[in-house]
Write a structure and sequence with these properties.
The protein is an alpha/beta fold. The protein is built from eleven helices and 14 strands. It has one domain: Metallo-beta-lactamase, Chain A, CATH 3.60.15.10. The strands form three sheets. A seven-stranded mixed β-sheet has the order 1-2-3-4-5-6-9. Bound molecules: zinc ion (2 copies). The site of one zinc ion (ZN) has 5 residues, from loops.
């Protein structure tokens, strides 16, 4: 957990620091690590959300692309795995730690695919109040050119890849990626492996949708499935079940206080997640902030 804490604190830095000498030093120091997942499939961990990469005869297929500042390092990491710049690029959602490299890879010729709400969110100015983050409208090259509503398939590198939209979970445009033959899933930010997640309530996210998204993945996974979470280490179905169960307890305990007429401040003061903190509270979202996120999504 200690390593996770460090990684995830660093993960928020780009949202909090403005450009400058320190920021450059920061990006220079980031390393991209490739974790083997299955034949030809890797998880790249650098700065921001985990990237899934499939390398094979049809070209490189990437799932997410981290921050814009990471594009050169990601390209180098893919090259090291004998892959080319992505031919197809999928966005699990619009956040800058997952889709920040779109403009770069779009200009390199990647065909960007995502749920239609990802394109809509990228097209306009967006903010995440909690992190004081503002995203200007993205240029044309950064926008998905293939969008879907509920699900679609890609047939690449010998696999049938099922893309499934999960409604109002981490945002309003999340989708999970299922390599049906390799038995590998990328869950995007509907799954933070080992710690409280961020939920973007301003973008239509909510804890009920997070739980439903986890259940969708749990239903299609088995004990051999490798699951790439949006953040945290490569996971198993059991890890995801534990995360889902944590969300269920959080929802139940906070709902009980809301039903009792408690205000946000009273809910936070009641420490409704005391039983979960030891195991889940060591990540990058402090418990009180996490309670506030869940509360704000539930009373909306
Ligand atoms: Zn993320
Ligand atoms: Zn996110």
């Amino acid at each position: 957990m200690k390593i996770l804490k460090k990684t995830l604190s660093a993960c928020l830095l780009p949202l909090l620091i403005s450009a400058g000498a320190n920021a450059n030093d920061h990006w220079d120091s980031v390393e991209v690590k490739a974790v083997p997942v299955s034949d030809g499939i890797y998880m790249l961990m650098g700065e921001g959300g985990n990237i899934g990469v499939s390398i094979g005869e049809d070209g490189t297929f990437a799932i997410d692309d981290q921050y814009a500042q990471m594009s050169a390092k990601i390209t180098a990491a893919i090259k090291k795995l004998s892959g080319d710049s992505p031919k197809f690029l999928f966005n699990t959602h619009w956040h800058g730690d997952h889709a920040g490299g779109n403009e770069h890879f779009g200009k390199q010729g990647a065909i960007i695919v995502a749920h239609e709400n990802v394109r809509e969110s990228l097209k306009v100015e967006k903010s995440i109040k909690l992190f004081n983050m503002h995203k200007p409208p993205s240029p044309k090259e950064a926008l998905p050119v293939v969008t879907f509503q509920s699900e679609m398939n890609l047939h690449l590198n010998g696999d049938d890849i099922h893309l499934v939209h999960v409604a109002n979970a981490h945002t309003d445009g999340d989708a999970i990626v299922h390599f049906t033959k390799a038995n590998v899933i990328h869950a995007g930010d509907t799954f933070f492996n080992g710690f409280y997640p961020f939920i973007d309530v301003d973008s239509g996210g909510g804890i009920a949708g997070m739980i439903a998204a986890c259940d969708t993945v749990i239903t299609i996974a088995n004990d051999q499935t490798k699951i790439m979470p949006g953040h945290g280490p490569l996971a198993s179905k059991a890890d995801l079940v534990a995360f889902r169960d944590m969300l269920v307890v959080a929802e139940k305990n906070i709902q009980a206080l809301i039903t009792a007429g408690k205000s946000e401040a009273e809910v936070i003061a009641a420490k409704p997640l005391a039983e979960l903190d030891k195991e889940w509270g060591d990540g990058f979202i402090p418990t009180d902030v996490w309670v506030k996120i869940v509360y704000s999504g539930m009373v909306k």
